[in-house]
Design goal:
By secondary structure, the chain is of the alpha+beta class. It has 16 helices and seven strands. The longest helix is centred in the middle third of the chain and has 50 residues, at 124-173. Residues 348-405 form the PucR C-terminal helix-turn-helix domain.
């Protein structure tokens, strides 16, 4: 600013700093009016805040701006610290960062509009110099405001995450739940949907040249973001790229069919966002019974995975037979032994499984890509080896249970 040390800058023959000082009360009002008109989030703030803290900050910033016009000196560290503190308060109040930054730019525009019409032709050089100084001002102010905001948000996030983790631990162990909820500032719902999640691999995790840890963390971040978007309320979770536990607040332990359908849609959505298959075992429970529900949900998930169920959401009712057959007992062992004469994974075992699933020979033949007579021949061989006829209603139920027991035994020798 070496060419302008006379007054530094003049518009309309008057020093710019003098013009702004005279306009200060009107500028404060105009800036607040323009911000609340153009930034809806500010218009929704309480009146006492707009005419209290926000007005005070606006006046302080404008005085700092006037001093810069008078001296040409950019804001000091002390001035920037003041803006950081103001931004931290906006973060505490929950205003989005883009809204906070927009307010500063709107304020600069209001000031510039108040000055620009006063510029004479011979003062164009001063106008360009002022414009350059304003850009330098925003260059310093924007990161200071952003840093103050983000530092506070991170501190709030860390506190919230710690409190939620403490509450989640209390729920999963069944100890001191009301006290943990009080410390976290989270009211306990009537019930939780407890999800045990298994998350498959994203293609990037196996791609040559790609760090699988980074790919897995990106997958998890997308999953969490979609979960927050899909579910309102204080969702509690402990997740890794491979899965984990999620507690979703729900109004009652007795879940309606519509609510189960909604949950299934949420799991599909987070799977799409993650770009990986997601399977969940689910149980509903009151807060004081979450520990038992979590153990049940984990068992249901284990059964769904062991029996190669399609990706989706499973309750105990969805896997009752598989659940029972996954528990070792003499009866289960004897059921599995019924198919002992058949080669594991062989064509007889495969044909029996497809026939029982499809219910008749022709659909089974289409699924196997063979002639229906071939299905009949193989089922006769099954009968000769096991003494059980798949076309007999009574035998079909026994064979279905035997197949499941055989699969359970193969998955868990």
């Amino acid at each position: 600013m070496t060419d302008h040390n006379r007054a530094l800058f003049t518009f309309g023959g008057r020093p710019v700093s003098e013009i702004l000082a005279a306009l200060l009360p009107d500028l404060v009002a105009d800036v607040l009016k323009e911000i609340t008109a153009r930034v809806p989030a500010y218009a929704r703030l309480p009146g006492e805040e707009i005419y209290g803290d926000i007005t005070k900050v606006t006046e302080h910033v404008l005085k700092s701006f006037i001093a810069m016009m008078r001296t040409g000196a950019l804001p000091t560290r002390q001035e920037l610290d003041y803006l950081r503190e103001s931004a931290a308060r906006r973060a505490e109040e929950g205003l989005p960062i883009d809204v906070v930054l927009t307010a500063y730019h709107v304020g600069v525009q209001v000031v510039w509009e108040a000055l620009s019409l006063r510029v004479r032709p011979e003062e164009v050089g001063d106008a360009m110099a002022v414009n350059g100084l304003v850009l330098r001002y925003l260059e310093l102010v924007t990161p200071a405001v952003g840093a103050g905001y983000l530092d506070q948000r991170q501190a709030m996030y860390d506190d919230e995450r710690s409190a939620r983790h403490t509450l989640l631990s209390a729920l999963l162990t069944g100890t001191d739940v009301p006290a943990a909820a009080g410390r976290a500032g989270i009211p306990l719902p009537a019930a939780y949907l407890v999800l045990a999640l298994a998350v498959g691999a994203h293609p990037d995790e196996a791609r040559p040249g790609v760090d699988p840890l980074v790919a897995g963390r990106r997958k998890l971040r997308r999953l969490r973001s979609e979960l927050e978007r899909q579910v309102r309320g204080a969702v509690l979770s402990s997740l890794t790229p491979e899965g984990g536990t999620i507690l979703v607040p729900t109004p009652a332990v007795d879940i309606t069919a519509h609510e189960w359908d909604r949950l299934a849609a949420v799991v599909r959505a987070i799977g799409r966002a993650a770009g990986a298959p997601v399977t969940a075992g689910v149980a509903a429970a009151a807060p004081d019974a979450v520990a038992d529900a979590a153990a049940l949900a984990a068992d249901v998930l284990e059964v769904a995975v062991r029996f190669a169920k399609p990706v989706g959401v499973y309750r105990i009712d969805d896997v009752l037979l598989e659940f029972q057959l996954s528990r070792s007992s003499e009866a289960v062992d004897r059921l599995a032994a019924l198919l002992g004469p058949l080669e594991p994974g062989g064509e007889l075992m495969q044909t029996l499984e497809v026939f029982l699933r499809e219910g008749s020979r022709r659909p089974a033949a289409r699924a196997l890509h063979v002639h229906p007579n071939t299905v009949d021949y193989r089922l006769r061989k099954v009968y000769e080896l096991t003494g059980l006829d798949a076309s007999n209603v009574g035998h079909a139920g026994l064979l279905t249970a035997a197949l499941l027991a055989h699969r359970a035994a193969a998955a868990n020798p």
